[in-house]
Amino acid sequence: MSVEEPKIEEITENQETNEQAEVSQQEIPEGAQVRIISKNEKKARAAILKLDLKKVKGISRVTFRKKGNYILAISAPEVYRTPAGSYVVFGEAEVEDLNKRYAETAAAQQAAQQAAQSAGQSVDAEGTPSKDPASITADLEASANAPNKEDDDDDEEVDATGVDSADIDIVVEQTGVSRNKAIKALKTHNGDMVNAIMSLSS
């Protein structure tokens, strides 16, 4: 009985390293958005792609919130979804400090307030110029004195032919509008009380 000895083969990665050397020697033009992927990341991607993951397109940014108002943000990520609903995200994570961002927005608001005050206007909390009390009162008086079109429509008598008077009474009772508006709403909705009440209520 002869036992065959197992053959041991040496696997060399010379070909792979030569190809990588050629790629690294090529010049990348300035301004090009090329990401160099490490060997370990390539292996991880290959292993994960064997798990029947589906690539999710259209995601431009992924953020993870951490303690202390810090955010891990991944711009232009590659996102894969498992059949169970979990996600795998590849990309370069950057740490963002929300406290710093809040300080920058507060400084911008303060600069806007100072610019508006130098122009002679007051500014509210959101940074928009606010009016003085005299101009607000003048605006309110002008809007109160302006004629209201809806009130003018109530003065006209509306023809109630084809509309049941009981339906009109129910619409007036439910919505609290004038009889003329109820008649117009019922005619608009072909006598349908429910739609007439809904249109007058909104």
From TrEMBL:
CDD domains linked: NAC_NACA, UBA_NAC_euk
Comp. bias regions, Low complexity: 113-122
MF GO annotations: phosphatidic acid binding; phosphatidylinositol-3,5-bisphosphate binding; phosphatidylinositol-3-phosphate binding; phosphatidylinositol-4-phosphate binding; unfolded protein binding
Biased composition (Acidic residues): 150-159
Example GO BP: protein transport
Keywords: Protein transport, Transport
One GO location term (cellular component): nascent polypeptide-associated complex
Keyword Transport: yes
Chain intervals with Basic and acidic residues compositional bias: 1-10
Location within or outside the cell: Cytoplasm
Region spans: Disordered: 1-27, 113-169
UniProt-listed Pfam families: NAC (PF01849), UBA_HYPK (PF19026)
Domain NAC-A/B as annotated: residue spans: 38-102
Record's function text: Component of the nascent polypeptide-associated complex (NAC), a dynamic component of the ribosomal exit tunnel, protecting the emerging polypeptides from interaction with other cytoplasmic proteins to ensure appropriate nascent protein targeting. The NAC complex also promotes mitochondrial protein import by enhancing productive ribosome interactions with the outer mitochondrial membrane and blocks the inappropriate interaction of ribosomes translating non-secretory nascent polypeptides with translocation sites in the membrane of the endoplasmic reticulum.
Family: Belongs to the NAC-alpha family.
Protein name: Nascent polypeptide-associated complex subunit alpha
Organism: Komagataella phaffii (strain GS115 / ATCC 20864)
Higher taxonomy: Eukaryota, Fungi, Dikarya, Ascomycota, Saccharomycotina
